[in-house]
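Dear support,

Our group has been running a series of protein-ligand predictions, and this particular one with S-adenosylmethionine is the one our PI (initials K.S.) wants archived with full inputs and outputs. We had some confusion internally about which version of the output was final, so please treat the block below as the authoritative record. The input we submitted was:
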Amino acid sequence: MSGLEDWTGRVGREWADKADAMDGLLGPVGAAGIDALGDVRGQRVLDLGCGAGDTAFALTVAGAQVTGLDVSGDLLAVARGQDTAQRIEWVHDDAARHEFDVPFDALHSRCGAMFFDAPEQAWGHLHAQMKPGGKLSVTCWREAALNGWVTVPLVAARPVLGKDVTRPPSLSGPGPFGWADPDYFAPLLRDAGWQDVEWQAVDRPARIATGNDPDPVVRAVAFVMRIGTLASRLRQVDPDTRARVAAALTDAFSPLVRDGYVEVPTAGWCITAKA
Ligand SMILES: C[S@@+](CC[C@H](N)C(=O)[O-])C[C@H]1O[C@@H](n2cnc3c(N)ncnc32)[C@H](O)[C@@H]1O
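Confirmed final output from the archive:
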């Protein structure tokens, strides 16, 4: 589970430290969400949960006037340090309550939509920040079992850590898989005032890597031991056990190297609606 307090604290810091890894993992599914907005030239676009800014930059390059909103000061600091950062308005606040003076033509979010502790209130509030008919485009994960960035590390670590520690992550409540079920997010959005709610499955391979090591398997192991479901369960584990997990991950990732990266299947939703 990761809610507001995780993102303002430890989880936000870990992601900021590994910001180089985000685009590799989230980019393939997220590209569908940017495409779904169509021509954004001249439009005022809110990038919800913008993190280190990858999609805010992409939307800016596509001609939008972008506001990047995030609750993590650590991630926004990374975003603000990028070359094109001065072309973007950055807002450090909780999206569930930040009031904007001028409404938006479009609301975009790449994997930043499913962390609200009170989602009904948050999505009603976000709806109120939009022009009538403004577009919504959200990408999020489908169930964990379809996502190799979760399953491959958990299965590899199971002989070392046991079944309980390597159980699949929860699909309910705030967290990366909180919007895995359309029967959850579609009524949530409709009740918050969004219309024409539609969604499409987006299944694409993605790269898991962080750091500069020339060996792609070393970069993938570094990533999953710091970020994601397995990483959160390794925090209490002693150094010897960690080393055995790293060895098991190395074996599991070695056959998955393609073009200099470990690639795993990912499965997401691209959700669209209108305000
Ligand atoms: C998985 S990350 C995705 C980051 C970014 N969209 C990307 O694709 O690289 C989720 C993001 O949502 C942000 N977030 C979570 N809850 C939030 C809230 N209540 N208000 C604003 N941002 C939030 C986190 O700080 C984090 O940057």
